[in-house]
Fold Spermidine/putrescine import ATP-binding protein PotA.
Amino acid sequence: MTAIATTGTDVRLTGISKTYGSFTAVHPLDLSVPAGSFFALLGASGCGKTTTLRMIAGLEDPTSGTVELAGRDVTALPPYKRPVNTVFQSYALFPHLDIYENVAFGLRRRGVKSVKKQVDDMLELVQLGDLARRKPQQLSGGQQQRVAVARALINHPQVLLLDEPLGALDLKLRRQMQLELKRIQTEVGITFIHVTHDQEEAMTMADTVAVMNAGRVEQLGAPAELYETPRTTFVANFLGTSNLIAADVLDTSGDDILLRACDTKLALPATRCTATARTGEKLLVGIRPEKITLTHADDAASVPDGRNRITGRITQAGFIGVSTQYLVDSPVAPGLSVYAQNIERDARLAPGAEVVLHWNPGHGFGLDAAQSIEAGTDAGEAGT
Ligand code: ATP
């Protein structure tokens, strides 16, 4: 398979916004998508991600701002004159044409005489060469999805836009297709912009994720960066689960910010705090459930020095095979989540048990306490 040449494609949105009457679906947004990257717009339903994608495609006129593709201002161009193709959730294949002709369609429409080599290459890319003469209705959902991708890629777009392309597939197939789409993107090297509400999908496939909330990008970065250092409670909870502990700042003079939550002292490296920490004010200390270790209170003396430690009581323990998920009530915060890998299970860690929760301070992150913990928790539920 010959890779489609990338040509330094870049998508740049400058001050782009969309209002419908008095409702603002997308607030003025600046976004730059690196050439050849797999970029995900991630957010809950109604956050404005599809509207943003449609403005890039030219299917929606922006209220303000500009869209540049590969350095060219295309804001005023209709969709068919933009070097983009869109793959929709409803594949939109032609039912009366076989797979080969569906894929060949774009070339034939442009009057390309000899299509065989390109169509064969595309079918090979999406691993459907054997099924070329079948009709779309004779394929599974995942296979139809791959035809839709091949049909879009054969036009050599500079950017491929994917609007919830895996939404109609069941969970197992979705997971397979995520890997498949990532492989295809790596192979062809074209910029993919993918819209999804599924955080796992965005993290599995994308190099860069823009987390959208209420028409704004809350944070943009590599998946691991967003997960390890979320900057807002929304991001902390939309990407996975976070425990957020409100604490008073005691001292900011050293490398670690020292804090107190109830009577418990906590430390947080200053480099892990995106909010401004001021002595006497509050901060949210975030810690992911899998970064916390649970130790039965009887063994509290075995917890190594230098770790943040709080006490609590287990209220729930859910065995899910690979891990056990605990809920722990602590005077410091109620309903703390802890995920423990099932390597050596301590049978005493059951509902009612008194425990010590402890973690490496370097695994925490600090957020502005002015953001409500409630809002973050709600967002987390929406994202799972
Ligand atoms: P979903 O995942 O449900 O598709 P989304 O994040 O892609 O959600 P958009 O489709 O971009 O959301 O819509 C953003 C907001 O704009 C929503 O509140 C939606 O109701 C509103 N909206 C979209 N299109 C229109 C329209 N033509 N007229 C009025 N409001 C609209």
Observations:
- The chain has a mean pLDDT of 90.
- Residues 160 and 272 are 35 Å apart (CA to CA).
